[in-house]
């Protein structure tokens, strides 16, 4: 899926649009779950959100995303 494939819904979506969106997201999640191994799932949860680190005022620096090999 590319960013061009994503349609932003403005306003209140119709029931059909909402049902279609839910179906697409569910299909993507199901496909990802089928293709993921248990090691993939463990590494995903290991790198997921954790306890925030305290940073004193003025110590904020831009965070860079970690690259996954």
Automatic annotation (TrEMBL):
Residues 47-58 have a biased composition (Low complexity). InterPro entries: ACC_epsilon (IPR032716). GO terms for molecular function: acetyl-CoA carboxylase activity; propionyl-CoA carboxylase activity. Pfam families: ACC_epsilon (PF13822). Residues 38-69 are annotated as: Disordered. This is Acyl-CoA carboxylase epsilon subunit.
């Amino acid at each position: 899926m590319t960013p061009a494939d994503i349609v932003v819904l403005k306003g209140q979506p119709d029931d059909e649009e909402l049902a279609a969106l839910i179906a697409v997201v569910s299909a993507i999640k199901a496909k990802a779950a089928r293709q993921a191994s248990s090691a993939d799932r463990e590494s995903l949860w290991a790198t997921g959100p954790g306890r925030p680190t305290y940073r004193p005022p003025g110590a904020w620096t831009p965070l860079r995303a970690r690259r996954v090999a």
